[in-house]
Structure formats: C-alpha cells, structure tokens
Specification:
It contains 14 helices and 10 strands. It is α/β, with parallel strands linked by helices. The chain is globular, with a radius of gyration of 19 Å. The two termini are 19 Å apart. Bound molecules: ligand G3I. Ligand G3I binds next to loops. It catalyses: Endohydrolysis of (1->4)-beta-D-xylosidic linkages in xylans. Belongs to the glycosyl hydrolase 10 (cellulase F) family. It is an enzyme of class 3 (hydrolase). Pfam families: Glyco_hydro_10.
Length: 323
C-alpha cells in the first residue's frame, strides 16, 4: 500500500518527523517506519547548541552527523534545527557572563562553524526559534536579547546566509495559528526583517495543538495567507495534537485528533508556498510530551506506541489523496 512518503512525493511536498536519535539507533521498528513513511527529517535535539558545543570551542558533530547520514542514506531531506534559541544552551553559556562583543563573537562563531560544517548537506535552517513572547508579542527574554540587543536576530540570519548563501533560512515559532498578540508579534518581527533586507526565506509554524482547544480553521488559513503575503515560504515544522486535556472518551478524542491532522494537511496543500509538513515525532512510543510535559498517557502522534496506524494517519492519507 502507498505510504505517506509515496503520497507526498506524488504531491511534490515534504512529509517528515522529528527524530529521536536514541530510538533511531536502538529501535529497528522506529528506523524502518521512519524511512518507509517520511521524506524529510528534523533532529529533535541533536543539532541544538548544548549538543554541538558542550564546552567552549569544542564542537561535537558526531551525533548530528549520524542523523544527516541516515537522512542521506534514505533519500530524506534533513532540516537544521536550531541555531539560536533561549533553551538547550550549555551551562558554560547559560551561566557565564559575557560582554556584548564576546557574545556576538560566540554566536557568530557558532552559526558560521555549524552552517559551514553542513554546507551541501543541510539546505534549510531554523535560524532563530521562539524569539517572541506569547503574551506581549515583544521579543522574549534570552541571553541573546539581554547580551546583544534586539538586532541579534538580524545578525543571526546574516551570519547564516554568509556561511551558506544557498540555504533557505526560517524563523520558527509556535502559537501563530491563532488571532493573538503572539501572531501579531511574529508578523511584525518578520515584516521588520524583510524591510531591513535581512536574508529570510520562510516561517516555520510549529503547530503544537490540543484536541480540546484548537483554532477555527479560517484563522489558521488566514494567518498562513498573511505570512505568505509577506513573500515567505511556510513550513509546518513540529505538528502534534495532544490528547491529555480530553473531556471525552479516547475513541472520540482520537477522531477529533484525526480531524485536526487532516485539516492542517489540507490547509498546507491549499497554500502554494506551504510545501513541508513535519510532525514532532511519529509514534506515541517516543514523544516529548511524556518526558518534558510529564503527561505519560498522552497520545499526540499518528502511529500508536506499537507502530499501528491511528485515525490521524488515515486522515492524513485522505488529505494527501484529495486533489
Ligand atoms: O541528553 C540528556 C541526558 O544525558 C540526561 O540524562 C537527561 C536528563 O536530564 O536529559 C537529556 O537531555 C534532554 C534532551 O531533550 C535529550 O533527550 C533534555 O533534558 C530535555 O530538555 C530535551 O528536551 C527537548 C526540548 O526540545 C529541549 O531541547 C525535547 O526532547 C524536544 O522535543 C523539544 O523540542 C522543542 C523544539 O526544539 C522547539 N519547539 C518546542 C519543542 C517542544 O518543546
């Protein structure tokens, strides 16, 4: 039978998943289903600052290289996630105190070394991740904002572009599928970058959603269209649909979850510049929601913990088959 990957290839879009490297290296079912069903992959943690530069000046690319090699061996497109974020920073950086010049040097050195290391292998980067505050729409606090100032974002994109002029450079965030100060803040950040001639090609809409409260679809489409009207590509970068807040029985919850997954895939197919949909994992056996949110019973993804298709998988198949 056709896999998601076959259906996506026929539509010339990427359908992908965030990859848990530990599972990839130890769970054969995981790596088999991943390469059967997806044509794009994002490292869940292997390319974050704390993984690539655990000690000052000591770049540790081995694990991330294994991820890129897996992608290459299976004809999958790897995404670079993520160069500049307030989280996943090594202690020497998080707890150190640096002058503005020192911090600019650290960030420029990091972006240049990492993007150069993967030049020719990774052609799309989440350059800056989650830099806008959910409630105010202003730039959110981070060592980068405090230590360098608001133009750290412009600098990051320019340094990434200098290192690899061919790479597609994205700003990535969550919560931009609602009418909210968050959307307005991200929108005006992107508008400013474009107005200043900063090299940015697209915006990642993470799409971390819940069965109990999800936006009306008209808003999702309108927000996608507004980003598209800025001249940006739109990637769905981290979709999952959490179930632990559910107020109804599980079969009904999984049906609601399927409707959300199917709707967002259809939305992306409707917007010409949306050509990539990545789920934040693919099997309920491995999800950040259990480890990071401590919601062990949540079933946010499209395969169950035994790699069986869930209703969400079937809804995505239907959406990919819809002309
Ligand atoms: O590798 C260490 C291990 O050595 C240690 O024993 C263990 C216990 O402390 O921690 C392990 O590191 C964990 C890492 O995942 C690898 O498993 C970190 O604690 C944990 O915080 C980290 O969580 C990841 C988180 O980003 C922070 O990097 C999640 O798996 C990952 O799903 C999550 O992904 C983010 C996206 O990058 C950005 N958008 C939101 C999304 C969900 O938070």
């Amino acid at each position: 039978p056709k896999t998601l990957r076959d259906l996506a290839d026929a539509r010339h879009i990427h359908i992908g998943a965030a990859v848990n490297l530990d599972a990839l290296q130890h769970d054969h079912d995981y790596s088999r289903v991943l390469s059967d069903e997806f044509n794009a992959v994002t490292p869940e943690t292997a390319m974050k600052f704390d993984a690539l530069q655990p000690q000052p000046g000591d770049y540790t690319f081995q694990q991330a290289d294994a991820f890129v090699n897996y992608a290459h061996q299976h004809g999958m497109v790897p995404r670079g996630h993520t160069l500049v974020w307030y989280s996943a920073l090594p202690p020497w950086l998080q707890n150190g105190s640096y002058s503005r010049d020192q911090l600019m040097y650290i960030l420029k050195d990091y972006i240049t070394k990492v993007v150069t290391h993967y030049k020719g292998q990774i052609n799309v980067w989440d350059v800056v991740n989650e830099a806008v505050d959910d409630d105010t729409g202003q730039l959110s606090d981070s060592i980068w904002l405090r230590g360098i100032g608001p133009d750290y974002i412009d600098m990051a994109f320019r340094w990434a572009h200098e290192a690899n002029p061919q790479a597609q450079l994205f700003y990535n965030d969550y919560g931009t599928e609602w009418s909210s100060k968050k959307f307005d803040g991200v929108y005006s950040l992107l508008q400013g970058l474009i107005q200043r001639g900063v090299p940015i090609n697209g915006v990642g809409m993470q799409m971390h959603m819940h069965t109990q409260f999800y936006p009306d679809n008209a808003t999702v489409l309108q927000n996608m269209q507004r980003f598209a009207d800025l001249g940006l590509k739109i990637d769905i970068t981290e979709m999952d649909v959490l179930t632990s807040e559910t107020k109804v029985d599980m079969p009904t919850t999984l049906k609601i979850q399927a409707d959300i997954y199917g709707t967002v895939v259809k939305d992306c197919l409707q917007i010409k510049v949306c050509q990539s949909i990545v789920f934040w994992g693919f099997t309920d056996r491995y999800t950040w929601v259990h480890s990071d949110l401590h919601r062990d019973s949540d079933q946010p993804l499209i395969f169950d913990k035994d790699y069986r298709h869930k209703p969400a998988y079937d809804a995505i198949v239907q959406a990919l088959k819809t002309p």
